[in-house]
Amino acid sequence: MSRKPTIQIPDYILVPNGKEVIGNKEGLTAFIFENNTKNLPIEKFLSMKFKSDNYFATEYWVVIDKIKYKMIVYDNSDFEKYFNSANYSVINLEPQNDQSDQQRKFIAISMINSNNEDCLKDDSLFQNITVNYLKKLKDEYYNQ
Predict the structure, then answer these.
(1) What whole-number distance in Å separates Cα of residue 137 and Cα of residue 11?
(2) Which one of 40, 97, 131, 134 has the lowest number of neighbouring Cβ atoms within 10 Å?
(3) Which pTM was predicted?
């Protein structure tokens, strides 16, 4: 039996068929990147960045160029349900610092606007703005 090839994510990838939201017939597109398991868990990072008192929050409203977007962070079970981590392989494994028992290996985030439109899908007018925002957020998370 041969193993199915896995995808490595050097920066990020956009993957369709994530969570569904009201008013959107298809699953949302997700911005997926490899976790840096040396850092704080992404949930803790986001709760500090957005000054949330809820460490378990999975949704955050952000404003980019005066437009409001909802950022939806997939928890580990949702990531497995929609994207299956077995489809991806880790590039940056550093065993001496690895806390992967406690942390997931990949992070997925979707973004919608106030009309529940998928802002990351290929034909979205908001894709460039939201991808750039998420790339900066990922870099900030990596460099904490």
Answers:
(1) 12
(2) 97
(3) 0.89
